[in-house]
Amino acid sequence: xxxxxxxxxxxxxxxxxxxxxxxxxxxxxxxxxxxxxxxxxxxxxxxxxxxxxxxxxxxxxxxxxxxxxxxxxxxxxxxxxxxxxxxxxxxxxxxxxxxxxxxxxxxxxxxxxxxxxxxxxxxxxxxxxxxxxxxxxxxxxxxxxxxxxxxxxxxxxxxxxxxxxxxxxxxxxxxxxxxxxxxxxxxxxxxxxxxxxxxxxxxxxxxxxxxxxxxxxxxxxxxxxxxxxxxxxxxxxxxxxxxxxxxxxxxxxxxxxxxxxxxxxxxxxxxxxxxxxxxxxxxxxxxxxxxxxxxxxxxxxxxxxxxxxxxxxxxxxxxxxxxxxxxxxxxxxxxxxxxxxxxxxxxxxxxxxxxxxxxxxxxxxxxxxxxxxxxxxxxxxxxxxxxxxxxxxxxxxxxxxxxxxxxxxxxxxxxxxxxxxxxxxxxxxxxxxxxxxxxxxxxxxxxxxxxxxxxxxxxxxxxxxxxxxxxxxxxxxxxxxxxxxxxxxxxxxxxxxxxxxxxxxxxxxxxxxxxxxxxxxxxxxxxxxxxxxxxxxxxxxxxxxxxxxxxxxxxxxxxxxxxxxxxxxxxxxxxxxxxxxxxxxxxxxxxxxxxxxxxxxxxxxxxxxxxxxxxxxxxxxxxxxxxxxxxxxxxxxxxxxxxxxxxxxxxxxxxxxxxxxxxxxxxxxxxxxxxxxxxxxxxxxxxxxxxxxxxxxxxxxxxxxxxxxxxxxxxxxxxxxxxxxxxxxxxxxxxxxxxxxxxxxxxxxxxxxxxxxxxxxxxxxxxxxxxxxxxxxxxxxxxxxxxxxxxxxxxxxxxxxxxxxxxxxxxxxxxxxxxxxxxxxxxxxxxxxxxxxxxxxxxxxxxxxxxxxxxxxxxxxxxxxxxxxxxxxxxxxxxxxxxxxxxxxxxxxxxxxxxxxxxxxxxxxxxxxxxxxxxxxxxxxxxxxxxxxxxxxxxxxxxxxxxxxxxxxxxxxxxxxxxxxxxxxxxxx
Length: 973
What we know:
Elements: H1 2-20, H2 32-43, E1 46-47, E2 78-80, E3 87-91, E4 97-98, E5 115-117, E6 140-142, E7 150-152, E8 164-166, E9 173-175, H3 179-186, E10 192-194, E11 216-218, E12 226-227, E13 240-242, E14 249-252, E15 264-266, E16 271-275, E17 288-290, E18 295-298, E19 312-314, E20 319-323, E21 336-338, E22 343-346, E23 360-362, E24 367-370, E25 384-386, E26 391-394, E27 408-410, E28 415-419, E29 430-432, E30 437-440, E31 454-456, E32 461-467, E33 479-481, E34 486-490, E35 504-506, E36 513-516, E37 527-529, E38 534-538, E39 548-550, E40 557-558, E41 569-571, E42 576-579, E43 593-595, E44 600-604, E45 618-620, E46 625-629, E47 642-644, E48 649-652, E49 666-668, E50 673-674, E51 690-692, E52 699-701, E53 716-718, E54 723-727, H4 730-734, H5 737-740, E55 761-765, E56 768-772, E57 781-783, E58 788-792, E59 805-807, E60 812-815, E61 829-831, E62 836-839, E63 853-855, E64 860-864, E65 884-886, H6 904-912, H7 916-940, H8 944-972
Parallel strand pairs: 3-5, 5-6, 6-8, 7-9, 8-10, 10-11, 11-13, 12-14, 13-15, 14-16, 15-17, 16-18, 17-19, 18-20, 19-21, 20-22, 21-23, 22-24, 23-25, 24-26, 25-27, 26-28, 27-29, 28-30, 29-31, 30-32, 31-33, 32-34, 33-35, 35-37, 36-38, 37-39, 39-41, 40-42, 41-43, 42-44, 43-45, 44-46, 45-47, 46-48, ...
Antiparallel strand pairs: 1-4, 2-3, 55-56
């Protein structure tokens, strides 16, 4: 009883104490000084709407409700100590605050803070200054995504009570040298450390792995480098470890003990490598594993099947190989599975069909083969199937047509056959079946997929007629690609209201014919490709958003349809169009590529063609019937890269304004009637790689240039079939640095142009006139044939060691074939025919192992035809009418004195490389053999035949020496 009374009295006393304490409703908890401090803090910022936190909810201007005269402990974001009334928690996250936190901010007059959260505001220009290190009681600090930048003060490492520190997403904020190490060593109570996108620029500190209290660690995109520790990973409380985006951080996958709590692990986009250890199976609590875009290799360990809690597995972008093991039976919780961009082979494991909760799986860009598994259990939640870029064969299994939640289907670039089935549900938004061997017609169910945004069926064997009226229900379709099939098209007269959001249509390389009036996508269509069909007429509409319009390689007739003013790419080449070009085309002020080549256009070119678009990169008018002069003016600062006027009837001079086309790479004026001297001033264009002036009326001496190093980028030169005269232009030949230095170490074949449009050119190579529809960036050739050049061939041509084709035929060249030609190791075609060259063919030319075509006919060459390597493949026509030549393949045999002497170079090599050891060995062997033969002969008593042989050889040597002496004397005279 006494105990009960004692408790009652104690309770009564406590009640009175509470009634008289600051907890009483009649008493304000917040001291007046703190109220003023917080109001001053509020007034130091402006408030502007931020959308950062709207995704998560709870975004509103908290300080707007802070009013003088009210209890600050009741304000939004403010929490006070229950007994003292001091502000100990301040949460202004997502409060729309904007301004700078200076070192004298009243924020730092709240010394009792234990938790400070300023995340998701805009404090641009602020730094994490030393004042933040004065909050000695602070346990939780969150400044994430608030615009802090500059150096993070080392004073922050003095917050020894910190349990949670989050500075993430403050771009431009960085630790001082050794600042991060100090932080890790001093903040021993840390449970959460998030520094995403904070520049640490340090090696991974081993001391981090001693923080046994650590639960969550995120150092992603922080500039960590060096090697991750190799010893066993032992942080028993750690649940989250994110290191992604540290490209210079290397190491092996850590070895984990069974005593771990890890739930989320992300090493993606680092330089981790090696094989996955079996200890990965110890991560039995793991829910997320992302190792994508690293350097891991080997096969997937079977212990992966122990990760029964995993929901997301990302291994894409590595070097994993071998078969994908049947490890998915136990992974019932798996939702996201990414194995793309590896070297997996074999078949898709059948256990994939047991992932009943899977929503997304991607096995693309591997070497998987065989059929897609036909047995699955459910897949009711599956939204994305990505199996493209493999070698899968067989037909598309029926279950892929019946998935109720399927949104994306990617099966392109495989070897699938058969017909496309009918889809049973209408959830599909994207279908990618391109580059397979599918056949038949387009299934009617596709035109019922009201949510469809992308349809790619290109490069198959699809056939039949599709009508535009079928698109009526596809209101959301953005991209349509049916190219490279055998489809024909029927236009509907009421199709103008169809496909209201269409942006891209590719129907190229089909069986579309007739006159086409495409009236869909008037406001949205950006890309339309109808090339490689049999369209005879096309009605151009005023598409307001059109950028790429490709109508080339059809049967279009009549005048040129004027493209919409918004067009940047317009190709209508290889048709049968005629008439003149209307100046209206110059209204397309955004034009980058204009290709009207291979038509029957005529008339005079509009003067505006050279200056109607500052973005113009390619102007191709080859193979038409234009006459008059080339446009004479070009915009200053233009982007012109290619000008092709080949095969027209243009005349006059080369426009001097071309000198301002600093981006010019290709200039083709061939096969016209241009009457001018050599445009030496073009040598100042720094990027000019292709110059074709052939078959015009150019004349005069090429001579010298006032430019110190002209044409340094030039690698294709064609001046053939003109009236140039004088010596070959040695100065220009010495300046062709692009033919002397070609980077062939890069194995990737690149062509002049861009991914969609490549330059083409007509060249005479290997004796044939060929059109190169693409110009390889390592192709080089010089054609100066059919002019009136005189004199000798310059030795400096031998310095063009990456030259592939050389044609100097049909000129008036004299002298010898330069010995320096032996240096042209890449030469494939050499034509020196129809000149007046004399002397021998250098034996050293046999070292040109790539030489496929040689024409030395109609010259005055003499002597023995070299033998060996490629010279054994050349026929009589290579040497025709050189009456002084002898030897294979000619029927004329060589006399003894026509057999070639070793060149001076061979003598020099012998003298410089004379080896007395080899010589003495020869003398020794000769001495032994000679003595043995001598004994044998003299013992037989019949040495007459030996005397006869010696006498005959001495006589031949005397005759040969006399002839050699006469020849040397004749050359001196």
